[in-house]
Write a structure and sequence with these properties.
Elements (H helix, E strand, L loop, with lengths): L1 E4 L20 E2 L3 E2 L2 H9 L4 E6 L4 H10 L10 E6 L13 H6 L2 H7 L3 E6 L3 E2 L3 H11 L3 E9 H4 L3 E5 L5 E6 L13 E12 H12 L8 H9 L5 E5 L15 E2 L4 H10 L27 E3 L1 E2 L2 E2 L1 E3 L2 E2 L4 E3 L2 E3 L2 E2 L4 E2 L4 E3 L2 E2 L4 E2 L4 E3 L1 E3 L4 E2 L4 E2 L3 H7 L1 E2 L5 E3 L1 H16 L1
Parallel strand pairs: 1-4, 1-6, 4-5, 8-12, 14-19, 17-20, 18-21, 19-22, 20-23, 21-24, 22-25, 23-26, 24-27, 25-28, 26-29, 27-31
Antiparallel strand pairs: 2-3, 6-11, 7-13, 8-11, 9-10, 9-11, 15-16, 30-31
Length: about 425
């Protein structure tokens, strides 16, 4: 069975996660981040899934209940939500990834799995977990860690494994200044994806052992896996061996969209003629829940007022009414009004772009109402004063920021 750890806040996404956890953040026009590991489970034939939630989980729980309730209990299939319930003697919330599994250990044992697949709930990728599990079983491993190949310089921000020629993990280091490299590849390192396959009894034993340690953070990457190095058969699995590559894709795709810049970049990549991630492949669909809305609509066609979108993704329910959308991604129920321009931007659901507004390199949170004539994305200093501007030059706009700005302007007028 699989357990998806979906309780993380994702604080580096700034105000996008003020009211919801990172796995619930919308992605790609109609999906949420959690849909990717859930879809990978379904497509891999794994139909027993627990989703451990904690931080501001209402949006995530509602999404899973609405969109992922199609499995049949009488066939022992399920996607269950496992919120933090203070199930241990100290009545604590989940204190780490391993603790999240430990607190549900009795539920897991009740399903009597032979192998347990532990997944992160906050990455964008397509992976056939059945290949990963097959590799684990055939190798005779106690634990298998799924690893992605990354350039050495990028590896400094990950947990990095060092392997021998047979794929055995011989060391595991967290965010090393000098990352170990792959055998025969001095330019590449293996970063842990936060995906593990455990033999069930072996996992129970080491979760219980770790719980007795007062100085442990009860985390798989920081505590469990490093302890196991040299003490058991610990194998690395290359993501390239189980990544689903199809359609227009040419290489393995795995993204941690944990920063505003990374989130913007991964969404905007989907607008390219040949994106790095192919979402149009019917052989490995990404499933989700979506509201039933009419088709996107584009109106007005005169030289001065034309409703058009170029190199963009426009979701159901959108109305582009005499505005121009370029290299952007519009989620459900976005309206772009006359003479407005939206460029290189990610617009989340139910936003309204006022007449003659100019929006450039923006991530716009749900339910924003952009006033007529507002300009965002031309003056970096002005954007940073009014909103949040990232190091990569992406401006985040939220309804709360707009309300505060309107109140300040009203107060200034009264003075």
């Amino acid at each position: 069975m699989a357990l998806i750890l979906a309780g993380g806040r994702g604080s580096r996404l700034m105000q996008l996660t003020e009211s919801q956890s990172k796995p619930a953040v919308p992605f790609g026009g109609k999906f949420r981040i959690i849909d990717f590991p859930l879809s990978n489970c379904m497509n891999s034939g794994i139909r027993r899934v627990g989703v451990a939630t904690q931080y501001k989980a209402h949006t995530l729980i509602k999404h899973i209940q609405n969109g992922w309730g199609f499995l049949r209990a009488e066939l022992h299939e399920f996607i269950e939500i496992w919120p933090a319930q203070q199930q241990t003697d100290d009545e604590s919330w989940y204190s780490g990834t391993a603790d999240a599994v430990y607190q549900n250990i009795n539920i897991i044992k009740g399903h009597r799995p032979d192998y347990i697949l532990v997944l992160a709930g906050d990455h964008i990728y397509k992976q056939d977990y059945s290949r990963l599990i097959t590799h684990h079983v055939k190798s005779g491993a106690d634990v298998t860690v799924s690893c992605v190949e990354v350039p050495v310089e990028e590896a400094k921000g990950f947990g990095v494994v060092d392997i021998d020629g047979d794929g055995n993990i011989i060391s595991f280091v967290e965010k090393p200044e000098t990352p170990p490299t792959m055998p025969g590849r001095s330019d590449m390192s293996l970063a842990s994806m936060g995906i593990y396959v455990f033999n069930a009894d072996f996992l129970y034993e080491h979760l219980c052992r770790d719980q007795q340690l007062a100085d442990s953070s009860h985390d798989f990457g920081k505590d469990i896996v490093p302890y196991l190095v040299g003490r058991c058969k610990l194998m690395a699995h290359l993501f390239s061996d189980s990544c689903v590559i199809c359609g227009t894709q040419t290489e393995s795709y795995w993204r941690d969209v944990g920063t505003l810049d990374a989130y913007w970049e991964a969404n905007i990549d989907l607008t390219h003629v040949i994106p790095s991630l192919d979402l149009y492949d019917n052989n490995w669909p990404i499933w989700t829940y979506q509201v039933q809305r009419p088709a996107a609509k584009f109106v007005f066609d005169s030289p001065s007022r034309r409703g058009a979108a170029v190199d963009s993704l426009v979701s159901a329910g959108c109305v582009v009414s005499g505005g121009i959308v370029e290299r952007s991604l519009l989620f459900t129920d976005v309206r772009v009004n006359s003479y407005a321009t939206v460029r290189d931007s990610v617009i989340l659901p139910e936003c309204d772009i006022g007449r003659s507004a100019y929006i450039n390199k923006v991530v716009m949170a749900k339910n924003c109402r952009i006033p007529e004539g507002m300009v965002i994305g031309k003056d970096a200093a002005d954007d940073a004063r009014r909103f949040y501007r990232s190091e990569g030059g992406v401006t985040l706009v939220t309804p709360e920021m707009l309300e505060k700005l309107a109140a300040e302007e009203e107060a200034a007028q009264r003075r």
